[in-house]
Design a protein that fits this description.
The protein is mostly helical and 248 residues long. The chain is 72% helix and 2% strand. A two-stranded antiparallel ribbon has the order 1-2. The protein starts with 12 loop residues before the first helix and ends with a helix.
């Protein structure tokens, strides 16, 4: 029977504990779906404090080998592209405080969504079109209600990407799009803004329904570019204020 991995000497204790626990999962000493030992047991095994164990388990989760939400005790899992991307969401959101990173995030989102609508226009089924009409109607009904419209807006874009049937693209989209929406300030005139976005969504759907991939891609690209331009001055102002009032 293989020995359970022990943390190496030197370096940060949490990193060493995390590496040892990941080795346990990879080596089969801790089976997928099995709970990790309790904090007390891990403290005794590695001769470290509870805060160190908690930090180590957080690192294991970030690397895709632990589910910290399914039960009271962390559970071992095997990483997938989807789980790793989902685990990176918090880190992605931290990056969004930087202007250059915001631009990169928007660019990735644009590549995903523009490519998605081009493909969907060529292959959309009756059921998919019905779902898009439903998502568009939800946007119309939410006009004037900032929180409801935000949720409906996200749902419309997510539906488009989901039809590509690629879980990696969908997870990437969820990571970038939700993070961007969460960082956006409220509009001064929510109703006017909602009406404009609704009209742009409708134009995208009309192009898809016509089977016109080039037009759908063009309309989506213009929609996302307009959206980014509208929030850019607000982000720049926030950066200027942060530079003028650095944290002590």
């Amino acid at each position: 029977m293989p020995e359970i991995a022990q943390p190496t000497r030197g370096g940060r204790a949490a990193e060493s504990v995390a590496a040892a626990l990941i080795a346990d999962v990879q080596g089969g000493q801790i089976d997928e779906g099995e709970n990790f030992p309790s904090e007390r047991e891990l403290c005794e095994r590695f001769d470290v404090s509870r805060p160190t164990v908690r930090e180590a388990l957080s690192l294991v989760r970030q690397r895709g080998f632990a589910d910290l939400s399914a039960s009271r005790r962390p559970r071992a899992i095997r990483p997938t592209f989807t789980s790793l991307l989902e685990g990176a969401t918090t880190l992605m959101r931290d990056l969004l405080d930087d202007m250059e990173s915001i631009a990169y995030m928007e660019q990735v989102r644009q590549f995903i969504e523009v490519g998605a609508v081009r493909l969907i226009a060529k292959s959309a089924t009756t059921v998919q079109l019905a779902r898009l009409h439903g998502a568009l109607e939800a946007c119309r009904e939410a006009i004037g209600d900032a929180d409801r419209f935000k949720a409906a807006d996200i749902a419309f874009h997510r539906a488009l990407v989901s039809f590509v049937d690629n879980p990696i693209l969908l997870t990437l989209h969820d990571t970038f799009a939700k993070a961007m929406f969460d960082r956006r300030p409220r509009e001064r005139d929510p109703k006017a803004h909602n009406q404009m976005v609704y009209a742009e969504h409708r134009a995208v759907l009309e192009a898809i329904a016509e089977g016109n991939g080039d037009r759908a891609a063009k309309v989506m690209e213009e929609h996302l570019a307009r959206s980014y331009r509208s929030i850019l001055p607000i982000f720049r102002q926030a950066e200027r204020e942060a530079a003028a009032n650095p944290k002590s």
